[in-house]
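Data deposition worksheet. Section B asks for the primary sequence of the deposited chain exactly as it was used as input, without tags or linkers unless they were present during the calculation. Section C holds the resulting structure in token form. Section D is free text for depositor observations; keep each observation to a single sentence. Incomplete worksheets are returned to the depositor.
Section A, Depositor: J.P.
Section B:
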Amino acid sequence: MLMWKKKPQSILIIKKIWDDLVDEAFVELAAWLVQVKNMEVLIEQQVMDDRIINKQPAFSSICNKLSTFTEGKDNITDMVDLIICLGGDGTLLYASTLFQTSVPPIITFHLGSLGFLTSFDFSDYKEQVSQILEGSKTCFMLRTRLKCDILNQNDTSQLAVPPKSAESRRHVLVLNEIVVDRGDASYLCQLDLYIEDKLITVLQGDGLIISTPTGSTAYAAAAGASMVHPNVPAIIIAPICPHSLSFRPIVVPADVKIKIAVSPDARSDAWVSFDGRNRQQLLKTDVLVISTSEYPLPSICSIDPINDWFESLAGCLHWNVRKIQAPLRYPSPPDVFTEDGLSLDSNEGSSI
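Section C:
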């Protein structure tokens, strides 16, 4: 259960961009938080500069009371008590990238397309947010994140401090998955996979997905991996179109260290992306090191971790949805008669 040590004072709102429906919901929510709940509201600078949003009278009346930040420039780790996401799953993934250490609790309202990770309906946002701010019977789950470092084999530093520039960052936490692929090369991707410093196998195919349980219902599921509940401590390894009939996705313990390197004999380098962002080249001299982060993402539940997950499986992915097989309907057995025309029906007694 979510319990506040002190009453929340500041809320970060992350919204889906270029969506009129989300714009209206954002303005309504921000005005309510500022004018009714007397909260400090933090938004992105690009949202503040949005001309369409600025044309709304309700926003003009509160814009001077809002604080702003810019991704990659401002550190907001200690400025936020609660995060509210308006949109689809991408808004939650984006919010995760903003916090590369501890993350405040996050509530996600479904205003996007799929919404597997967004379990709240915006129609009753006032009641939902009020309950969370009061800390009354609020359930949440800790979603595992993966820590990723790209190290040069000749580099002894561990890159403990993330660089300031998001484009050149080689230390990142991901919520869904890391994808290593062949990029625009026409050759097979050839990758050496190590677990606990032991060479497990060499992939030859289009690429490799290293996924959290949260990400197991995303790209990994499309690649044939098992869907794993976010409370399960595990890491999913799924090949992308392997040129082998026996290379199946696997699930390994969450506490192992995984290393991926481009094979020395590979015909080309590879490319890596983190939750679909910060895509960069993985050279033959690089080693991608992946482990479970000590900073999970606390995601507030609509009901509870079990119900929310299975509701999303059924509602978003239509998991195991099919028509129920009709039961067998045996016809009534025909009456049996003796040669003299007497019935042998047991209900009518013996004919003798």
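Section D:
The first strand starts at residue 10 and ends at 15.
The two ends are 76 Å apart (CA to CA).
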